[in-house]
Amino acid sequence: MAIMRNSDIAISIKNLSKFYGSFQALKDISFDVERGSFFGFLGPNGAGKTTTINVLTGLSNYSSGSVDVFGFGVTSEYQKTRPLIGLCAQEFNFDPFLSLEQMLVYQAGYFGISEPQAKRRANELLDRFQLSEKKSVKYRALSGGMKKRLLLCRALIHDPEILILDEPTAGCDLELRFLIWDYLAELNKEGKTIFLTTHYMEEAEKLCKTIGIIHNGEIVQIGEKEKVMKEKTLQDVFLELTNYREKIC
Fold first, then answer.
1. What DSSP string describes the chain?
2. What's 9-94+161-248's CATH class?
3. CB-count exposure of residue 165 (10 Å: 0-12, 13-18, 19+)
4. What residue segments make up the domains of the chain, in order of their start?
5. How far apart are alpha carbons 29 and 182 in whole angstroms?
6. What is the rounded distance in angstroms from the CA atom of residue 75 to the CA atom of residue 206?
7. What is the per-residue pLDDT across 126-183, written as a single tens digit (0 to 9) for each?
C-alpha cells in the first residue's frame, strides 16, 4: 500500500487558479474530498472539470494555489502522488499492438509492479469486469462497452487509493451503465475514494455522497448530497445554480 501523509483527506485543493494564456479556466477554487468518499464533480461543458482532473493527475500545470493528495503536493512530491491515483479518462487511448492482458501488465510496470504480480492483478480485474475471455485479443476487437470496462481495469491495475472517473458512462447503453454503477458502488464500499464527473444527474444522485458544482471556473455549490439537493432533484439544483451564474456574469 502506498504511503499516505494525511489519511483523512484524500484530495485538498486550496485557492487553485489555472490560466491558458489570457483565459482563466479555474478561478481560485478550494475544496476537500474525504478519504472513502464518493464525490461528484458536476458542471456544464467548459466549466473546468477536466482541467481540475488534469491538475490532480499531473497532466497540466497550474498557475497558483496548492493541490495535495493525502498530504503530498502533486507537483513537489509527484512521485508519491501518482501511485495514489488511478485515472479513467474519456478517450480510448490504448496501445493497438498489445492484447488486453499485455496492456494491463505493461501499465502496471509504470508503478514498479513485478510481472508475476501484474499478471495476477490483470487477470483478477479482467475476471471482475467480465473480460477474461478477451484477454488475448487486441482492444480493437472489443465492443464500445468492453472498452469502457477496459479503461476501468487499466485505472485500477496498481490498486490506487483514489479512482478518478471522467464521464465513465458517456455513450453507454442502460444495461452497461447500470453494470458500471454497481462496480463503482462496490469499489467505494471496499474503501476506494472516487472522484466522478458526469452529465447524468441520475448517476450522481444514485452514487455520490458529496456533490460539488463548478461553473465558469468557480465552485458555486458544494456539500453533502442531501444538503445540496434539499427537497429538489439534483437536476433542478444544477439548472438553478448555472442559470443564476449566467445572469450575474
1. ----S-SSEEEEEEEEEEEETTEEEEEEEEEEEETT-EEEEE--TTSSHHHHHHHHTTSS--SEEEEEETTEETTTTHHHHGGGEEEE-SS----TTSBHHHHHHHHHHTTT--HHHHHHHHHHHHHHTT-GGGTTSBGGGS-HHHHHHHHHHHHHTT--SEEEEESTTTT--HHHHHHHHHHHHHHHHTT-EEEEE-S-HHHHHHH-SEEEEEETTEEEEEEEHHHHHTTS-HHHHHHHHHHHHHHH-
2. alpha beta
3. buried
4. 9-94+161-248
5. 31
6. 34
7. 999 999 999 999 999 999 889 999 999 999 999 999 999 999 988 788 888 898 999 9
Using CA atoms, how far apart are residues 206 and 165, in angstroms rounded to an integer? 15
Q: Retrieve residue 191's grid coordinates.
A: 474503501
Give per-residue pLDDT as tens, 206-246: 999 999 999 999 999 899 998 888 767 887 777 776 675 66
- Return the amino acid letter for 141: A
Instruction: Output the nine-digit C-alpha cell for 180.
Output: 458500471
Closest by CA position to 202, among listed 187, 223, 181, 224: 181
Under the banding of pLDDT at 50, 70 and 90, the label for residue 4 is: low
